[in-house]
Design goal:
This protein is α/β, with parallel strands linked by helices. It folds into 2 domains: 45-271, Glutaconate Coenzyme A-transferase (3-Layer(aba) Sandwich), CATH 3.40.1080.10; 298-517, 3-Layer(aba) Sandwich (Glutaconate Coenzyme A-transferase). It is 22% helix and 25% strand. The strands form 6 sheets. It has a 10-stranded mixed β-sheet. Pathway: Ketone metabolism; succinyl-CoA degradation; acetoacetyl-CoA from succinyl-CoA: step 1/1.
Length: 519
C-alpha cells in the first residue's frame, strides 16, 4: 500500500471514531468528579523548613521592617543546627527584629546586603570579624537577585564604577581588631556607548523567604504597597521559595492581573503568624509647630539647614521626577509652592510619594527609603525594588538630592562611610550612576563639626561615585560643578563674602561674572 493510501485510510478511521476519541480525551483529564489538587500550603513553618540544611544561601525579602518574613526567620532560630547561612537581604533589620535575630544567634556566617543602617549588632560583628559582609549597591543587589531568577549569570551596570566595589578594595571580613582580613575582588570593566560599566555576577539562592499579603494554594502571590520591595525578585530566584502570607486564599481569589509572583516560582506556602512592625513612626506636623522645625535641628544649625533646604527646593521644576536622600533632602518638598508639581520616587518602590500620615493613619506596608511612614499621592504607583532601580539607572529620574560628607572639585561624591563607622551604600551609588540624565544636587553644611572643609580637592573618604555631582548647595552659597573644569560659585548667601567662602573651601573655584544672591 502506498504511503498516500495509508494516510487516507487512517484519516477515515479517525473520522469514523472521532466521538470515541473525544470521550477518551475527556476521561483522561477528568475521569472522576474530583481530581487531584495542587496544594502548596503547609501547616507550619516547621514543616516548611524540615529539610533545610546548614550552609544554605537564603534570600530574605523585606526593606527595613517592611515585608519581612519573620515567621520563617523565627523558625530558623528554633533550629540551632542550621548554621553557616549566607543571608542575602537589603539589610538585616534591627538588633531585635528580622535577620538581626539570626546574627545574634550566630547562625549567619555571611551577609550580602546594601545597608547596615542602625543595626549596631550587625555593625559590630562586621567590624570585629564575626560575620562576613559583601556590601553591594542596593540596585545592583536587586538586579543580581532578579537576574539569577531569569537564568542570566551576569550583567554590566554603571553603578559603583570608580569606587571600592569596582577596585576590590572593600573588606569582606575584618580581624578582631578591625583591620581587614579578606578583600573583595576587582570587577571587570567594559565600555558601551562611550561609558564604563562593571561586571556583576548574579546571585543564586537555595531558599527564598518571602512575605506576601495574599497567597493561594497554587502559590500565586500578591504583595501590598511597599512590602513588594525585594520579595518579588527573590521569590523568582531560589531553588525552594517559601512564602508566608497574611491571607491564604482559594485559587481565583487573587485576580490574575494582581498576581505579582506566579505560583510556578513557589514551592511552599505557610500562614504568617508574626505581627507587622514599623521602624520609624513619622507623622505630619503643622509647619508652625515647633516639633516640625526641630527636624532641622536647633539654633544656628537649624538656621543653616533651613537656608540650604529652601534653596534646594528651587531646583524642583514642574513635571519633574525626583528622588530625595535621607535627612535634609527629604525636607525640601515642604518649601515647594503649589504651582510646582513634582512626582517623588522612592527607591524602595514608590512613584508618587506623598506626605507623612497623620497619627493613627500609619501603615506598616507603606514606608519610604528612610523607613519612615508615608502616604501616597493620587495616581501613585508601587512596584518592586528591581523595577525601581531600573528607572533610576536608565535616567528616568530627572533630579536626585543627596547629603554628603565630602565633594571634590570635579564632582566626586563621598557619602557612605566615615572611619570606624559604616552604614552601607543603600541606593546612592545607583542614584548617581547616570549624571548625564539625572542631575545630582548635594545639600550639606559647608564644613564639618571641627571646621574642616567638605568641598575638597580630592575626597579622602571612600567614593559613592566619580564625577557625578552637578551642584553643591551649602549655607554659604551655591556652586555649579563642571566635571572637566571644576567649580564655579554662582550664588552667595546674604552677609557672606567670597573671601569667607575661599577660607572654608579646599578646592579651588571660579566666581561667576554675574554672581547672584542666594535664592
Amino acid at each position: 500500500m502506498s504511503s498516500a493510501a495509508l494516510c487516507f485510510r487512517t484519516a477515515k478511521a479517525y473520522t469514523r471514531n472521532s466521538s470515541k476519541q473525544s470521550l477518551l480525551l475527556a476521561r483522561t483529564f477528568a475521569s472522576t468528579t474530583r481530581r487531584y489538587e495542587i496544594n502548596k500550603v503547609l501547616p507550619s513553618a516547621a514543616e516548611a523548613l524540615k529539610d533545610m540544611k546548614p550552609n544554605s544561601t537564603v534570600l530574605c525579602g523585606g526593606f527595613g521592617l517592611c515585608g519581612v518574613p519573620d515567621t520563617l526567620i523565627d523558625e530558623v532560630i528554633n533550629k540551632p543546627e542550621i548554621t553557616g547561612i549566607t543571608a542575602v537581604s537589603n539589610n538585616a533589620g534591627t538588633d531585635t527584629s528580622g535577620l538581626g535575630k539570626l546574627l545574634k544567634t550566630k547562625q549567619i556566617k555571611k551577609m550580602i546586603a546594601s545597608y547596615i543602617g542602625e543595626n549596631k549588632t550587625f555593625e559590630k560583628m562586621y567590624l570585629t570579624g564575626e560575620v562576613e559582609l559583601e556590601l553591594t549597591p542596593q540596585g545592583t543587589l536587586a538586579e543580581r537577585c532578579a537576574s539569577g531568577g531569569k537564568g542570566i549569570p551576569a550583567f554590566y551596570t554603571p553603578a559603583a564604577f570608580g569606587t571600592v566595589v569596582q577596585t576590590g578594595d572593600l573588606p569582606l571580613q575584618n580581624n578582631p581588631d578591625g583591620t581587614p582580613k579578606h578583600y573583595s575582588y576587582p570587577k571587570d570593566v567594559k565600555v558601551f556607548d562611550g561609558k564604563q560599566y562593571l561586571l556583576e555576577e548574579s546571585i543564586k539562592g537555595d531558599y527564598a523567604f518571602v512575605k506576601a499579603y495574599k497567597a493561594d494554594k497554587l502559590g500565586n502571590c500578591q504583595f501590598r504597597l511597599t512590602a513588594n520591595n525585594f520579595n518579588g525578585a527573590m521569590g523568582r530566584n531560589a531553588k525552594i521559595t517559601i512564602v508566608e502570607a497574611e491571607h491564604i486564599v482559594e485559587p481565583g481569589d487573587i485576580p490574575p492581573e494582581a498576581v505579582h509572583l506566579p505560583g510556578i516560582y513557589v514551592k511552599r506556602v505557610i500562614q504568617s503568624t508574626t505581627p507587622k512592625n514599623i521602624e520609624k513612626y513619622t507623622f505630619a506636623k503643622d509647619p508652625n509647630d515647633p516639633e516640625a522645625k526641630a527636624a532641622l535641628g536647633s539654633g544656628e544649625t537649624a538656621a543653616k539647614r533651613e537656608k540650604i533646604v529652601r534653596r534646594a527646593a528651587k531646583e524642583f521644576k514642574n513635571g519633574m521626577y525626583a528622588n530625595l536622600g535621607i535627612g535634609m533632602p527629604m525636607l525640601a518638598p515642604a518649601f515647594v509652592g503649589p504651582e510646582v508639581e513634582v512626582q517623588l520616587q522612592s527607591e524602595n518602590g514608590i512613584l508618587g510619594l506623598g506626605p507623612y500620615p497623620v497619627k493613627g493613619k500609619e501603615d506598616a506596608d507603606l514606608i519610604n527609603a528612610g523607613k519612615e511612614t508615608v502616604t501616597l499621592k493620587p495616581g501613585a504607583a508601587v512596584f518592586g525594588s528591581e523595577e525601581s532601580f531600573g528607572m533610576i539607572r536608565s535616567g528616568r529620574v530627572n533630579l536626585t538630592i543627596l547629603g554628603a560628607m565630602q565633594v571634590s572639585g570635579n564632582g566626586d561624591l563621598a557619602n557612605w562611610m566615615l572611619p570606624g563607622k559604616i552604614k552601607g551604600f543603600g541606593g546612592a551609588m545607583d542614584l548617581v550612576s547616570n549624571p548625564e540624565k539625572t542631575k545630582v544636587v548635594v545639600t550639606m553644611e559647608h564644613t564639618d563639626k571641627k571646621g574642616n572643609a567638605k568641598i575638597v580637592k580630592q575626597c579622602a573618604f571612600p567614593l559613592t561615585g566619580k564625577a557625578c555631582v552637578s551642584m553643591i548647595i551649602t549655607e554659604l552659597g551655591v556652586f555649579n560643578v563642571d566635571f572637566a573644569t571644576g567649580l564655579t560659585l554662582i550664588e552667595i548667601a546674604d552677609g557672606v563674602t567670597v573671601e569667607e567662602i575661599k577660607s572654608k573651601t579646599e578646592a579651588p573655584f571660579k566666581v561667576a561674572d554675574d554672581l547672584k544672591p542666594m535664592l
